[in-house]
Amino acid sequence: MEGFRNFYKWERHLIVMVKMAFSTCSSILLPATLQSLPLLWNDITRIDSIWYDLLRYRKLIRAPEPFLFGLDDGIGSLGTMGIALVIPNKAVRFEEGERAVKDQQILALIKENPFISQQELSAKLGLSRSAVAGYISALIKKGEIIGRAYVVREELRITCLGGANIDRKSQTLKPIQYGTSNPATIRQSCGGVSRNVAENLGRLGCQVSLITLIGDDQEGKWLMEETKRYGVDVSQCLTMNMAKTGSYAAIHNDSGEMLLAVADMHIYDQFSIDFIEARWPHLASSHIIFADSNLPKESLAYLIQRCEKEQLTLWVNPVSVLKASRLPHNLKGIHVLIANREEASALANMDVATIEDCKKAAERIIQRGAEQVMIALDRQGVFWAARDGRQEHLPPLLPDIIHRTGVEEALIGGALFGVTHNESFEQAVRLGMAAAAITMQTWDTVTDLTADQLYSLVDHHYNISDTV
User: Fold this and answer.
1) Would the pTM count as exceeding 0.85?
2) Domain segments of the chain: what residues?
């Protein structure tokens, strides 16, 4: 006997379903005193389903010797439904805490897959179909679940979809000499555009999740553990067997300027439409989706088109000039596109050297379908423009730049933080600039950020009315 399942209250009797092969109890008789019990299926399955160990439970309640009977009265034929344990003269009080636990279990499964059926919930939780229906009905009445598919109420969650890899950064201690070894400092850290954005958001206290692919290796495990430390939900990430976690290596000169970067990102070729489709319920329940162009071309196009069709808010970063070409020509469906000067030049098919060039490039990108465009200009700050004609150039907050890696992800993270805290887009960009400025002053790809830091810098340096 493995244990007991489904305990029910009937007057002063405790009735417990027994998980037991019926071939072992064919001689059990139905006691005459119980033959009139109204054991209808709906009555039984209305109550919670919990496993108990018989001996432990008997000791706990100090019950008299229990007896068994076959479930043959309005339920099914003996041997089909199983048997039940009855502990006489023991009233059972069902606590609200038990219901709360089941509520949370159901909500967790629905968050993972809003399209899950009641039958699937029943199988996963060990509840009957009608019991699941009762829980869901109560959750809908409480406003925890909205409609069908079950869309779980989220508190402004941002989902980041794209790269997560190992970053290795080298900076020479003296002016670089080609063709020979150069003394340098070498650092290893977590990286990947989407992962970095997610960590920035987690440090700022936002509700954020990451969807990415990692290899079945130590680097991948370390990435996930480090990312979780900052409050990022990594439950939707997938570990790929026989695959290597993505890696990135950059070389900077002694002044901090990046001279060369190389990347091994073959794992993201597996970022298929099917993979995105399987996680669509999670994406669809997000307040904002952020994606980078580490996704294959077909997957990016699918994501953009579906977000446009379902009116989901999508922010996109091209990652590099090469990967910018993965974006479809029709950018309708992208709410905000964030690019650096070189990426904007590739997307607009023109040189971007001046602020006037930024205006023209942003206009061309908006004509392709994007609603708003942000162009990161390093020492010149940021230029942004919107479809409604608003545009602005913001100079950098702080003049000194120690390190550039991770600055764009900080810009994106700070701006997303602002939008999810009911700030205007103008103010959100300023908050992004503040996050970028703080990151520029450190060697870290992602550094410690707080909301107070961002607002303090913005209040000190910017006037919200200074628009072009």
Assistant:
1) no
2) 3-87, 96-152, 158-461
